[in-house]
Amino acid sequence: MGMMRLAVLNFKNSFKNYLSLIISLAFTCVVFLNFQNILYSSAFDVLGTRNREYINMLVWMTSFVLGCFMVFFIWYSTNVFLVRRKREIGIYIFMGLSNQKIGQMYWIETVLIGLSALGIGLVAGMAASGLFQMILFVVSDLKLEIRFCSDIRSILVTVAVYLVIYMIFAWKGYGNIVRSSVLEMILAAKQNEYVRQNRFLLIGKAILGVVILGCGYGLALKEGRTNVMGNAFGAVVLVTVGVYLLFGGLIPFLFWTLASNKLFLYRGTRTLWINNVIFRMKKNYRTYAVVCVLMLCSVTALAMGFAMKERYDNMIRFENTYTFQLISSRSDLDKPARDLIEGESPIVFSSTLPVLSLDGSFVKAGGNYSKYEFVSYSYLRQLARDTGMELLFEEPKEDEVFLVSHLHLLSLITQQTNEIIVNGKLYRQTGEASVPYLGYLQESMNFYVMNDHEYEKLVPLGEELYTYNYRIQDLERFARIRDNLDVLVEETKENHTGRVAIDPQSNEIDWIKMLYSICIFMFLVFIFASGSIMFMKLYNDAFEERERCKVLRKMGIPQELLRRSVAAELLTAYGTAFVVMAVSSLFSVGALGKMMYTNLLSVNVVSVLVVLGILAVWYGLSLWTYERNGEIE
Amino acid sequence: MKDNKVAEVKNLVKSYGAKGFLTKVLKGVDLEIQKKDFIAVMGPSGSGKTTLLNILSTIDKPTQGVVMVDGRDVSKMPNRELSKLRRDKIGFIFQDYNLLDTMSLQDNIALPLAMSGVSGKECIQKTGELARMFGLEEHLSKYPYQLSGGQKQRGAACRALITEPEIIFADEPTGALDSKSSRELLECLRKVNEHGQAAILMVTHDPFSASYARDVYMLRDGRIICRISRGSDRKEFYDRIIDVQTSMGGDFSWE
Question: Is the ipTM of this complex over 0.85?
Fold first, then answer.
């Protein structure tokens, strides 16, 4: 029988065994293909060029993350396959096959598995493209036409990315088998027997893990300006390594310590499940670490989704504070503008605010901007009275300023400075608020509020611009008023007058809706991946339990106790990953909060609870299959 | 003498297979085990030794007949009670030790006691006592893969004894041991039996192992065909077992 036929026969016979691997790989293809579809779909064109560009950028970034995810999943699946195959390889060795021949057989089987997964993934992906778009549009609250067929380019990109990654790992596996010694391959089946671990090595790993994880957490929350991305990347690497060492060091060490306290151990089912946890942890700690990191990704994605949704709603409210705004160097435009507007619609509220614009050369602050804006406290107090907005701070003292800024979607500058030098004088920044005193204009213009006296002193140095802000009642008259104001602007002799009209129907920032639905989608991908990896691992582990359970049953250990022991063991597997994830999420979501200039603790808690709910389902499912596969029920 | 009866089977029949294709493995076995008994059951492959042990130890159910353990008919007991009976009254020693590879020898020995809710202090104390008795004190913290076959089997015997069962069922306990380890284990079992700690029913194909028992039952084709009782000399008992085996003829093909 030739290698090809033997491999095909093996593949056919073990297809059912590898179905979970194939489905997982196919799932990554489905997700990747559907994101590529967005890139090449014309459904988003109606949102306008700006939105389209932002969405494309988001999809590219997401594709990159999904690509990394695909690398991991393929690595994981081919590795599981390789380990299982290695255990059977001993038989082929005694049949007189060389390593190269066995490697060839492995390679053909791996490629067959990969191609089946790709085929299933493409077909399922194309079939699900409509559904995927529908869900995405519904979650994003976008009213777009759904395109059902996949673009050939998205298929080609998916096939190319998948095959390149897959082939690298298939060849890697081939190389691994060719280089393996006969003894190593035969011993692969007996690895279960070695439980004892070097205590000092465990302690070393535990200390190193805690230190590295601590550094990762610290880096995540470190404030920065240009180095924020570097810090974030460093934090991801350190947290990943730290989690890995935690599961390889600290957690097994804790269980070892528990197990060596016999008074604690010999109580109920503890003897059984704590020893089993130690045994499994030695074999599975990499998997647990990976699951934990994926869960951390999922909770961060979900928190980001929630935060984006909230921020989008707030930004819409922020931008729509006023319907029309004028900015001019003239101080007498309120009356003509008001007359024009009131001729068409009543005004709900209005305000005027002089803003002093100073050249960047006079100011030394955290950023490096060409212009800085300042507002007098009295004027702002008047604006707050006129519009009914809250004034959150007292009048600054002579050496104090208060920063009024806009809502940040995500900022890569997280470092806050609390000092500013204006015209050689140092001012202490007492606080920051994002109240929309200047509505849409504030989106592109933060301003410092200062003492009236200090403000007056600075006026000769810069140019005072007057803002006129109106919120109208009758939005039906929006277009007409806008046109009338345009005429006013054109007819104003001074050339420094501009008009802003905030169309309530505008879809200018609709792309943010896509961002949060993509976040939700990434969350689903990650939580599915982490749950399925854990599930697959436990699914396989359960078969090893059969013999043990048989012995225990013979010894008269009641079914109930066995089930309780298994439940505790599985709970530990899911629980440790969950706890490490929940603690780490305080830092990852905290870092996100810093970039959004807000506190996301409540979002964090809600996201963690959602993950907990989903994990509970995975746990129940794992327990159910574990009992069946282990013949415990 | 009724009080001394630990287990008993009457007219035990066990068949396997579907209707019309039934294979009778046990064809009406009667056996009584008293408190101080040390019984060896011998017989050729397929004679029904292990089936008899499995039924007596409540792991398997009889097709017909009565099985009494601890004065109760086990064939009518629900599974939960059977588990309790096995845990409290019966100890097992298997040919392949069946120590759990996930835990140390000490934890393996203490397991049945800990699982039945006995305090940790008592578990530790009893584990220590048994380990001393079986010469395993030095090895308590080791894992099964770090122990020799003999040590593993003595560990298994400790585990079987820790709940102070009334009877121990041993299925080919020396099957995987060398002669020195076999002797050590059998000496230990004899000591346990002589101290009145438990009755022992051992299935074996090895006349040397069987010679440590007080009585040997020969099983053939699902029936007990003879019983040999030991006198004062084990060597003489061993010779008699061999003689019976020889006299039983060619069809007594041993495993």
Answer: no
Domain count, chain B: 1
Name residue, tokens 């006299």.
Answer: B247
pTM over 0.80: no
B120 interface with A at CB cutoff 8 Å = yes
B151 located within any domain: yes
Which domain range does residue B152 map to? 30-53+78-247
Residues of chain B contacting A558 with CB distance shorter than 8 Å: 80, 83-84, 87
Residue A570 phi, psi (nearest 5): -70, -35
Question: B73 lies in a domain?
Answer: no
Q: Does B7 map to a domain?
A: no
Give which of B69, B79, B100, B166 to mutate to test A binding, by max A Cβ within 10 Å. B100
CATH number at residue B202: 3.40.50.300
Q: Which residue of B has its CA nearest to A263?
A: B120
Residue A323 contacts residue A485 (beta carbons within 8 Å): no
CA distances from A257 to A203, A253, A265, A572, A577 (A): 11, 6, 10, 16, 19
Query: Consecutive sets of 10 residues in chain A, 633 residues long: mean pLDDT of each?
Result: 76 76 85 82 69 74 79 81 71 73 86 92 86 75 67 89 93 85 62 64 92 92 71 84 92 92 91 91 87 89 84 80 87 87 89 90 79 91 88 88 77 66 89 84 84 91 90 86 84 73 72 77 83 84 85 85 93 94 91 80 90 94 90 77
Closest-CA residue of B relative to A547 is B98
Q: Which residue of A has its CA nearest to B84?
A: A556
Q: Is residue B63 assigned to a domain?
A: no
